């Protein structure tokens, strides 16, 4: 009588061993294929029965994160472009001021040269030599 019970228990133990080996291989495969962060998602998917509810929620969350990141990058780009345009306008104004100063100084120098020539001409006519 003991012999038939051993034969019945032996296949059950063998089946449990097979299940243990399959579970171990699945866990090993998850560790090798998935990074640490996605392992949590796979465990949750197994707990929910793999219906894909987590995938849809994760997909929507990723889309929202992408959209927010895209909007923030557009705002930062707009701010940088505005700042560059402001700097260009300021530089142009400063250059205009400097150029107008140079023109006025050039006129003053030309006037001084004319006065110097007139003084030298007057001194030469009066007979005083320098």
TrEMBL record:
InterPro entries: DUF4577. It comes from the Eukaryota. Coiled coil: none annotated. Keywords: Membrane, Transmembrane, Transmembrane helix. The chain crosses the membrane at residues 65-89. This is LSME1 protein.
